[in-house]
Structures are given as C-alpha cells and as structure tokens.
C-alpha cells in the first residue's frame, strides 16, 4: 500500500509543469484510500504542447552541456563481474575443483634449506652491526685525537682530516661489501641449486634482498653520521629528528633490532613513532592479508594454472594468434592477482607490521593507479624501495656529478638485476626477461613523459592507458608465461617435446 | 637527446625539497651538453630523514582524504576491451567468418507482403484524415448554429452543448477506432501468418504500431481542438504556439503529411521548427546509422547467432547452470547491440529525420543510463512513446479521476501489449515473455523507488545497478534466448527433439 501511494505521488508521468500551466483548470481535492489527492480537472488533456521549444539531443555535439556517464561506469563494473563469473562457471565445468591443500609436494630438503636460510640471512645484518661497532670504537678514539687539533681551521687541515677519514672508511666499506655480497651470494646459490619449489625459493630470495638493502643502508647512513660526528664544521647540521640519538649512541643492539623489523629499507637512528599499538587495527590488517592470500591462491590454482598449462603447446608450436589469446586471457587474472597482492603486501602486511613496531610513516605507496607517466609509477608504487634508491644510489650519484638521466638509468639497471634475482633465481631460469622488462621502462618513461603533455589526445588518460597496457595487460602476463614455459622446459611436462619444437630456436637453454 | 634532457629535468627521483633543504651544501653551475645544470654539492647524501613525519597510507580508513580512482576506470575499460577481443579471437578460431551477404534466404513472398504492408499501413493515416475532414465540416456547420445562441450563458446551455458535441464525437470516435484497429489487425495478421522472416516482420509491425499511435494522437488532439473551437468559453485557452494554425485550418493535407513524417507520435497543429536544413549534419547522422547497423549485424551474425544456436541443447535438457552461463555470455553482446541500436535509432536516425523535417524539439531521450529508479528509465529512454502515453493515456485517465498509480499500471499494461505485438508476432510465438517483462517493471519500479533513497547502501548507485542487471544483463538476453528457442522449436532444428525433451513441460505450444 505504501508502494502504491509512493507511485501515486511520483512525478514521472505527470504532465510537465511548463507545458501544463496554461491549460490547468480547477483542481479538486479528493479522498482516495485515506490520503488526500489532487485531481486536476483540466478540460483539454490531449492538446498540451509536448513539443513547445527547440531542443537538442543530449548526446549531440551541439548540446549545451555534456551529460554525466556515471551509469556506464556501473555497467562496466557489472559486465566485468558477469563476464568473469561466467568464465568461472566454464572453468569449473571444464576442470572441476583444482584447489587442493594436500596436493602440494614440498620436498623435505626444500623446507630444511629454506628454514636454514631464514635463520642465516639476518645474521649478516648482525655482522654489519659488528663492523659498525668496531668503526664506532675507532671513531671514538679519533674524536679524542681530533678534538685536540680543533683550532687549526685551515684548508690543509680539512684535506688531511678527509684523507684520514677515508682511509678508515675504505677498510670499513670493504668488510661491509664482503658481508653484504656474501649474503646475496649464499642465498642465491642455495635457492638456485637446492630449492626446487619456486614459492619457497622466492620467499628466501626476497628475504635475502631485503636484508642486503638494509645492510647497505645501515652502513652508508652510519658512514655519513660518523663523518658529521668527527668533522661537525665541514657540513650542514643533521636532521633535527636525530638529535635524541646522536652518533655513536645509535650503534646499539636495540636500535639495530628496531631497524631489522621496521617496515623500511632506509636506516635512520630515529624514526617518527606512534604512541600506542592499536591491536584491533593489527588484527584487521592480518585478516585482510589472510583473506587476500587465499583469494590469490584460489585464482592461481583454479584459473591461472590450467591456463598456463594449456598454453604450453601453443608456445611449442609458435602459434602466435593463440599465444596472444592466452596472454589476453591471462592478463585479467594477472591484473587481479597483482592488485590483490599489492593490497595484501603494501596496505595490509606493511601497515600491520608498522602498527606493531609503532612505525609512524605509513606512506608505503602513492596513488600509482592514476599515473599518467611510467616514471611516476616507479616512484609511487613501492615507496620503501624508491626511498632506498633515491637516498643511497640516485642522490649520491648526482652529488658526485653524474647527469640525473644517467643516474636514473643506473637505478633501473640496479633494479633490473634485483628483479632478475627475484624471479629468475627461484624459477631456476635466469633468462633475463625480468631484467629486460626493467630496462624497457626507460624508453617507456621517455614515451609517456611526452604523451602525457599532449592535450588533443587527452594525454593524461592516454599515458595512464599506456601504463596499464604495457605493465599489467602485456608485460606481467607475458613475463609469467615465459618464466613458466622456461621452468616447464627445464623440469616439466614439455621438456622432451621442447627439444624438437620450433620454439627451441627462440630460447637459449643452459 | 631531447628525451634525455627531459628526463634530467624531471623531478621524480629528486630528493624531496622539505627533506633536502637542511642538508643542501653549495650549488655549483656546470656546463653539460651545452645546457647549464645545477649539481648539488651536499656532503651528507645518505642521512636525510626520509621518514620525518607520521603519515597514513592513502587507502587506509584513517587517511585524511580518499585518493582518486580514475585510473581504475581506465583499467576497467581496457580489461573489457581485451577480454572481448580475446573472445573474438576464440570465436574466429572456432567458427571462422560467419558473416555472409548472399546467405540470407528472404522468401520472395515475404518481400512482396512486406512492400504491400509498407504501402497499405500509411493509408490508414489518410482515412483518419478523411474522418477528421468530415468532422471539421460538421463542426463548421455547428459553429454557425452555436454562434447564434452564444448569448445564452447558462449551465443548462453548457450541458446541452456538451451533449450535442459528444453525440457527434461518439460517431467520429467509432470510425477512428475501426480504422486504427483495422490497421493493427491487418498488419498483425499478415506478419504472423504470411511473413516468415522475423526481420521483415518486425519492420512491418513497427511501422503499423507507429501509424496506429499517430492515428490515435491525430484523432484525440483534433477532438479537443474542435471542442475548444466550438465552446471557447468552457475551457482554458489553447497553447500560444497553435495560434498560427487554428482549428479547423489545421485539417489539411500538408499539415497531415508533416505529422506523418515528423519524428514524434504526438500531434500538434504547429511544432517548433528550425530555420534551415544542415545537410552536413544529416549526412553525418546517416553515416553513423549505416556504420552502427553494420556493427550490429556483425555482432549478431558472428557472435550472437552461434551462441544462441549452441544454447539450444542446454535448454532442451534443462541444464540450468549452462543456461545461466549462456545468458551471461549473451548479456555482453546484447548490451553492446542494445547500446549501438539505441544510439543508431534515437540519436542518429531520429536526428537525421528531424533535421530534414526541420523539427525543432530533438529531445528524443534523456540520460537514462544514469537512472537510479526503473521508473525514470521508462520515462527517459524513449521520449516519443513516453510523450504519447503521458498525453493520451496517463493524463486523461488521471483527469477522469483514476488514481495515478492505477493509470501508470494501465500504461504499462498497454505498453506490454504493444511489446508483445512487436516481438511475439514477427517471431510467430506469442509466448507472453515481452508482455510479462513489461508487467514485471511495476514491482521493479516499486523496489527501486525505495532502494534509491536508502543512503547507507549508496541507494542511487544500487538503483542504477539493479536497473542494468534486471534490464540489460538478465531481462534482454533471457527474453532473446526464449524467443529464439520458441522460434527454433516451431520451425528450426530442434522442433523434433523438443517433443521428447523435459523443456516441453515448461513451454506451452500452440
């Protein structure tokens, strides 16, 4: 009944006021169903001028204002959901349920090697600490000596001091380098030769790279802090934040352990901290992490795995149309997993960790999804790594006189090597696709830098489209397909057929 | 070289200004590649405080402002394009090219009957004209008689005048009804029994329904104009627009022919007109119409036809999961064709026709894609029909004292009959799905009227989603599938299997 009343009071079918006003006769009030309704008593119902003015269609170019298209956004969301639900039905009809917990065959030796690396890798951070402890002890001795000569404020004294500082630093740097490289080398060697399962391998390699970067940042930051401690007059003052923990007081176990677990790759003696740990916040983030991990696992096992599997013979026969079709199909799943993975790692996991560590600066990423230049993407999607690269590679290189463009290229080169380590080593195929992908970013940056400024093609939208296409719709699924194929060619079902296939000519096999 | 320079001046990798300002040492100017660059000579590169303030992640609930998600809109567009391009590749690999001009088998008799109906149907509009010509002649005589009695301005005289007017009108209305119903009956009979091809049948039936509505509007409007002519004191004045062509001068061949071709179903003696015909505009609209027609044809022949064909056995065996899957797949093509068809008819065709006719009011539709209530959808997507329904059915019924809700239900009932005529008759299966679909709009209107006002579920978005789901993603493809199946069951490949199938129990066969 309420509904009928509501329909009755709706204006949808009412005569337009402008058109009607002239012909409105007397209006009588009438009691219908207990509510008072106004029934118009107009004589001429059939003559009002429906077409009374000249108007344009709202989609015409000569329309005064463009209508909103927000409804089409909703339609797009629905069509995406419906299309992919349909593909899920087809997938289930074709393969049944592929998700299976007991089916995973972790080799016993993989798990043992993995655990060993998990314990061994952080040990290198403690070695870094010991080296710094020795350097701090040496600096303390130098400080006493220098303070006696402090009155001599001449250029010659400056040069002598720098020489003396550097001769010590080269020794310190040597030990640091040996330690950091050893960490990376040992982990890579074990993952490449002894860990068969790519998942366990990836975790170990990730851990090693993170600790490698933390060691480097700890060593380099303390080098500058030490110099400032010994020669306070020769440079600008240190950040005000660091005053509560001056060098060499910061070289202590507690400070190191905080840096070990802090969600950053950049060492600072002092970080902005929050006052309390909100445990509710932590549990919500951990629940997100768990939920998203399950979603990614289902998507990979149920949708990506059969897709990758049945694209193998397309690569073997170099059927390019079918390869393109497979990459296109894979791209949706890969974008989906990538977005879930990004959120799980950078929003859920790092925020949970930061909350537990009372780490104040939660800017782990920017709004990279809106970027119009691929340059901006690489500086916003992964702030921990960007911060490391900026502080310890780009900025010192520019300081030494390198042209900024060259310093940027060097950063991408270094990042390319890390990417290849992280992807090529656990899959036991250092085929260079990840490295090439990173190097390919340099011309892409140059391209989108130009395109985003072109107004007549809506440069910002075009740049954003190029980013999504190159990165998520082509780059990632293609790379995934190539590494999967290389892995299968080495260990899997196609390794024999591969020897006689035309694809053999395209792949160099080790 | 320009690119390198541009990369060099980019700020992406530069140290953030706030963080750097404290440590900036002397700045030297250096000539590199002919351009002057500022190289910073800061001592402490590795110590600046990357993490200097407490910040939240931009996707966190406690973030100060929500970031823009415009990039995800672009991603959605791309994923939609890529997914559907992929389906096109799969379709081509599976079926090859299905588009074929010479393959269509129009029966000769279909074309002849169609042409006959094309000539016969408008004749009824001219019969309507002849009836009105007679009525106008009679009104002219009555006018002379009444003008003698004009002084008697009493209620009794009014009642007598109304009686006299109505007695004539009942005769006129009888002839109009016979003529209009005969038009619809003859066309429907020929289309249902003699035109096998559903395409030709649909065109003929559409033509007949349009002329039927035009006849009704012409008769009803002239009835009110005649009354106003005879009894000017008894009602409000007519629209100012009509003054240039007062009754009975408007009953002439030229005026009728203009209404015959004008892009409206509502008769007015005078319409707002444009000054000139922009032939460039006309050709652009016609080019759009041609292009979109080809696109719709390809989409139907290449994508919808095989999909409908291979869903037949799913309906025969009542495999509901597969029927759902087919409807989901069909929905994308059906939405696409619907949007193209809408644009082709309501934007391109009607605007072209309006331009040639110098018809001023081009509001053939509103921004129905943004509707949050299904009520608004039905009043905005097809303004010509809405205008007819409002002026000649809804508004007179409400004027006679019907509750507005009941009048609306009656409009949907009438519209449901027309929809069934337009779909059921050309497919030779009056199975009532189109009629039921229209009647189903009434509870849907009641539902979305409520939902759009609920704030905590973003009612407007929810209402819009319900509109798209019910109308474009379920309603249309399901109806298309059912009519296709019914047609195939009567004439096509499955007519024999159908007798023994479980689906037989669900379909009543005539």
Automatic annotation (TrEMBL), chains A, B:
Bilayer-spanning residue ranges: 111-131, 168-187, 286-305, 333-354, 397-418, 430-451, 463-486
Purpose of the protein: Sterol O-acyltransferase that catalyzes the formation of stery esters.
> Which residues are the active-site ones?
419
Q: Which InterPro entries match?
A: MBOAT_fam, Oat_ACAT_DAG_ARE
- Name where it mostly resides: endoplasmic reticulum
Question: GO cellular component annotations, sorted alphabetically?
Answer: endoplasmic reticulum membrane
Q: What is this protein called?
A: O-acyltransferase
The protein's annotated pathway: Lipid metabolism
Q: Which domain of life is it from?
A: Eukaryota
- UniProt keyword list: Acyltransferase, Endoplasmic reticulum, Membrane, Transferase, Transmembrane, Transmembrane helix
């Amino acid at each position: 009944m309420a509904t009928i009343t509501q329909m009755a009071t709706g204006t949808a079918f009412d005569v337009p006021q402008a058109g009607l006003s002239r012909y409105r006769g007397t209006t009588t009030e009438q009691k219908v169903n207990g509510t008072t309704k106004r029934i118009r008593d107009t004589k001429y119902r059939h003559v009002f001028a429906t077409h009374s003015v000249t108007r344009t269609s709202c989609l015409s170019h000569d329309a005064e204002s463009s209508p909103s298209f927000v409804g089409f956004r909703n339609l797009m969301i629905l069509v995406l959901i419906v299309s992919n639900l349909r593909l899920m039905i087809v997938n289930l009809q074709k393969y049944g349920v592929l998700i299976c917990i007991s089916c995973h065959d972790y080799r016993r030796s993989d798990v043992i090697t993995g655990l060993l690396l998990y314990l061994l890798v952080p040990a290198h951070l403690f070695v870094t600490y010991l080296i710094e402890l020795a350097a701090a002890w040496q600096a303390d001795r130098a400080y006493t000596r220098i303070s006696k000569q402090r009155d001599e404020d001449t250029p010659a004294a400056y040069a002598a001091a720098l020489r003396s500082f550097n001769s010590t630093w080269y020794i310190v740097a040597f030990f640091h380098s040996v330690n950091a490289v050893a960490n990376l080398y040992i982990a890579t060697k074990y993952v490449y030769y002894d860990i068969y399962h790519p998942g366990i391998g990836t975790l170990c390699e990730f851990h090693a790279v993170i600790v490698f970067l933390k060691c480097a940042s700890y060593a380099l930051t303390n080098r500058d802090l030490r110099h400032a401690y010994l020669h306070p007059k020769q440079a600008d003052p240190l950040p005000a934040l660091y005053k509560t923990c001056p060098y060499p007081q910061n070289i202590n176990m507690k400070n190191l352990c905080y840096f070990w677990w802090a969600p950053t790759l950049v060492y600072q003696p002092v970080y902005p901290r929050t006052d309390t740990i909100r445990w509710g916040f932590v549990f919500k983030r951990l629940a997100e992490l768990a939920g998203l991990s399950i979603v990614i696992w289902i998507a990979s096992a149920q949708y990506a795995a059969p897709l990758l599997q049945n694209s193998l013979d397309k690569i073997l026969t170099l059927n390019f149309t079918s390869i393109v079709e497979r990459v296109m199909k894979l791209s949706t799943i890969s974008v989906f997993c990538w977005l879930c993975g990004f959120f799980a790692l950078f929003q859920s996991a790092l925020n949970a960790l930061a909350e537990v560590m009372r780490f104040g600066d939660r800017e782990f990423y920017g709004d990279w999804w809106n970027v119009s230049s691929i340059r901006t993407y690489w500086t916003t999607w992964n702030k921990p790594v960007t911060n490391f690269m900026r502080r310890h590679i780009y900025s010192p290189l520019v300081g030494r006189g390198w042209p900024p463009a060259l310093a940027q290229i060097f950063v991408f080169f270094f990042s390319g090597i890390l990417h290849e380590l992280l992807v090529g080593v656990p899959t036991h195929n250092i085929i260079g696709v990840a490295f090439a992908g990173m190097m390919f970013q340099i011309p892409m940056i140059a391209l989108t830098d130009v395109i985003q400024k072109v107004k007549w093609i809506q440069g910002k939208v075009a740049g954003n489209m190029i980013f999504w296409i190159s990165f998520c719709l082509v780059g990632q699924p293609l790379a995934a397909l190539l590494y999967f194929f290389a892995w299968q060619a080495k260990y899997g079902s196609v390794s024999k057929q591969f020897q006689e296939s035309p694809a053999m000519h395209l792949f160099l096999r080790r």
